[in-house]
Give the backbone structure.
Amino acid sequence: MYLVEVKPSARKANGAVGGVVNRDGIRHGFESRAAAEAWASGLSESGNRPVWIRSAHPTDRSDVDGYLVSRQRQLLDLDGAYDKRRRRLRNGSSERRTLARFEF
């Protein structure tokens, strides 16, 4: 048996994982690591963020074989961030200013 514990990072990142934890608890037993990874893959597809199985460290004193984890910090959507900053610096105007427009 391969015992997996769901870490808080996975619950926070993926709504499907949160639902599983609410229904069935934080520890889940599988026939093998491959079965646990298939479960994690299914949760990644049905949730909004990827989750995966990480092996427990050899010095880990718990009785689990692995953990279901995800990235703890939120990924920021920075698409267009440079353009937004450039528009803000131009006082909201996206048109290009050149010296030819100014009268001396």
Remarks:
- The longest helix spans residues 33-46.
- The longest strand covers residues 2-6.
- Residues 74-79 have pLDDT under 50 and may be disordered.
